[in-house]
């Protein structure tokens, strides 16, 4: 049964797509051996379950994973026309998908299996897929700062987001934009995901002159010491944005 990775957009997919069977098996086994948790998404990402790879059987062409908790959840996964998987291996995003998952028993425990995917997406550390955030309903980064003798939390709009960092707009130019400055205890408010805690390090700064003559400051910030669970949440949100963008481009509502 053929498997294809979740769509990342034609213009972005080819540089990151892995088609080598040997390499795909190596990545799957790497996820298994490092005991990485993997997000399993159905219904266009509206339902997310956490699983892990139990075995990669090259001879039978099968991947075996932990089943979801509960019979009803497993039935929904089995009934889903497409199941997407998102995981991290050495902080590199690995994404693939499959269909026709089957219930099995593996080492006396409930499990699911599916065919080894024909291809997958691997986003290298320096090639994090970056997507623009909505202008109509901006995502906010909440950054605590010391202003004179008081502590304030700035709420700044995001320009774009990736698994490696964000770009934000500091219209009033309040933040110290010196490269390397670290802002701790920050939060991102991601729609449908919720608040996630991040540490930001300024990597670049650019003052922009707008068409109306006003100026704005764009700061590129890198995530520092981020947990895999927070990275997985950001990854899910990026996939959600990409699905919405593709739906608009193809006219699907």
From TrEMBL:
Gene3D superfamilies: Electron Transport, Fmn-binding Protein, Chain A, predicted glycosyltransferase like domains. Residues 124-239 form the PilZ domain. Keywords: Bacterial flagellum, c-di-GMP, Cell projection, Cilium, Flagellum, Nucleotide-binding. It is found in: Bacterial flagellum basal body. The keyword Nucleotide-binding applies. Pfam families: PilZ, PilZN. It comes from the Bacteria. Residues 16-122 form the Type III secretion system flagellar brake protein YcgR PilZN domain. The keyword Nucleotide-binding applies. Coiled coil: none annotated. Belongs to the YcgR family. Acts as a flagellar brake, regulating swimming and swarming in a bis-(3'-5') cyclic diguanylic acid (c-di-GMP)-dependent manner. Binds 1 c-di-GMP dimer per subunit. Increasing levels of c-di-GMP lead to decreased motility. Monomer. Interacts with the flagellar basal bodies. This is Flagellar brake protein YcgR. It comes from Undibacterium umbellatum.
